[in-house]
Each structure stands twice: as structure tokens, then as C-alpha cells.
Design brief:
By secondary structure, this protein is mainly alpha-helical. It contains 10 helices and no strands.
């Protein structure tokens, strides 16, 4: 079977699973809402970073993106769905590529819209405090956030394919982004900058210090994602459905 009809089939699966469009709506709503609150409640100071404040809603919003990736892949392990999928598309690599594309594209699009909406509402709330942001910095922040949430969704999908469990994936990734990065990250120093979430989040800052910059940080996140996808692809290709 050609790639296009396989991709179409996988997109239909995602569209018809009620929880998955709900996760995308949650990504938009949570990101925009938290950024609006952050913009309204923040005052300028020595460490004030208007770009990070405006895009800070991505931090809780990414949980929805991670859940989307994990749930989209874990649905294949319920009720023998993967056997049916592979019976229709015996080329496992082609099927896996179509599945990951069907996950990546909507998350990227919603991530871009969410980041842009968050920037608009937070800038309005901050008023003149955000006047120092350049157009290039804002474009970099919005595009970078879209790429970041897409990478995290694919990272979750790849791990789910490897572990064959969405629950196991979420049990690993949610503590990582909510606990490890925030609680242990500062104490761990430079090493923490290379965590998949911490590295990608550098793109949200107007000013940044450290080993990585905005695009090199996203590259580190992308490398983690590629590793997870390769492991997940190996699992789908070598293990019984």
C-alpha cells in the first residue's frame, strides 16, 4: 500500500478517537490560559524575560501534547488493533512512519497556533513591559514552541511503541517534565540542560546563558526524539503485534 492512503487511515483513527482531539484542544486552552495569567500577574524586574513569560503556558500545555502522542500510539495495543493495522499494511516501517506523521502534523499546527495565541494575550496583559521584544525573537519563540511540543509528542509516541504501554510512558515523562526539570534541574547544573524538555525550552527565552542556545537546544530535544522513534520503530518491526 502506498504511503498516502496509510497516512489518511491513521489520521482518520486519530480524528475519531474522542480523547485525541480533546488533548489538542487542551494544548491550546491550557497554553493560552496560563500565558494570559502569567502576563497579567508578572511585573518587570532584574530577571524579567518577557518572551518566556508570554510563552510560559507551553510548560503545562506540553502535558497535553505528551498525552496526545502516548494515547495515539497506545490505542494500537488495545483490542488487537495493531494486528489489524499490520494486516492491512504489512510493511511495518511504512505504517510506523505514517503513524508518527499523523501524530506530528496536528501537534505542530496546534502548537504553533497555541504559542501565537499565548504570545498575543500575554503581550496584551504585560503592556509596555513587553515592548522590548523584537519581531525576530517572537517568531523564533512561536516557531520553536511549535517544534518543541511536536518533538515531545513524538518522543512520547516512540517510547509508547517501545514500552507498548501509554500508562508506562506517561508515568516516566510527566514526572520528568514536572519534577525532574524543575526540582532537580537547577541543582544538577549543566547536565540538566541536556534533558529532552529542558534543552528544547531554551527557545522560549529572550536571553539565555549556558552551553546551549535556542536552536542547539531544540536539536538536543530532536536527538532524544529520534532515539525514541528508532527504538519504537525497532519494537514495532521486531516484536509480535
Amino acid at each position: 500500500m502506498a504511503f498516502a492512503p496509510v497516512l489518511h487511515t491513521e489520521w482518520l483513527k486519530i480524528r475519531t478517537l474522542r480523547s485525541l482531539p480533546g488533548a489538542l484542544l487542551a494544548l491550546l486552552a491550557v497554553t493560552t490560559g496560563f500565558s494570559a495569567v502569567a502576563g497579567a500577574s508578572t511585573t518587570s524586574g532584574p530577571e524579567f524575560d518577557p518572551l518566556f513569560i508570554a510563552l510560559s503556558g507551553i510548560l503545562p500545555g506540553q502535558i497535553a501534547a505528551i498525552s496526545f502522542g502516548a494515547m495515539a500510539m497506545s490505542a494500537e495495543y488495545h483490542g488487537g488493533a495493531l494486528r489489524v493495522s499490520l494486516a492491512a499494511v504489512p510493511q511495518r516501517g511504512r505504517w510506523f512512519a505514517a503513524k508518527m506523521t499523523a501524530i506530528a502534523v496536528p501537534v505542530l499546527l496546534v502548537g504553533l497556533v497555541s504559542a501565537f495565541a499565548a504570545l498575543v494575550v500575554a503581550r496584551a496583559a504585560m503592556g509596555g513591559a513587553a515592548s522590548g521584544l523584537t519581531a525576530a525573537e517572537q517568531v523564533r519563540g512561536v516557531v520553536g514552541c511549535g517544534i518543541y511540543v511536536m518533538s515531545m509528542a513524538l518522543f512520547a509516541a516512540g517510547l509508547t511503541a517501545l514500552l507498548r504501554s501509554g500508562v508506562a510512558t506517561l508515568s516516566l515523562l510527566i514526572p520528568l517534565v514536572l519534577v525532574v526539570s524543575f526540582v532537580i534541574g537547577d541543582a544538577a547544573g549543566t547536565v540538566a540542560d541536556f534533558l529532552p524538555d529542558k534543552a528544547g525550552q531554551i527557545v522560549m527565552y529572550q536571553t539565555y546563558d549556558g552551553t546551549l542556545g535556542p536552536w542547539s537546544g531544540l536539536t538536543v530535544t530532536a536527538l532524544w526524539t529520534v532515539a525514541a522513534l528508532l527504538a519504537g520503530g525497532w519494537s514495532v518491526g521486531r516484536r509480535d503485534a
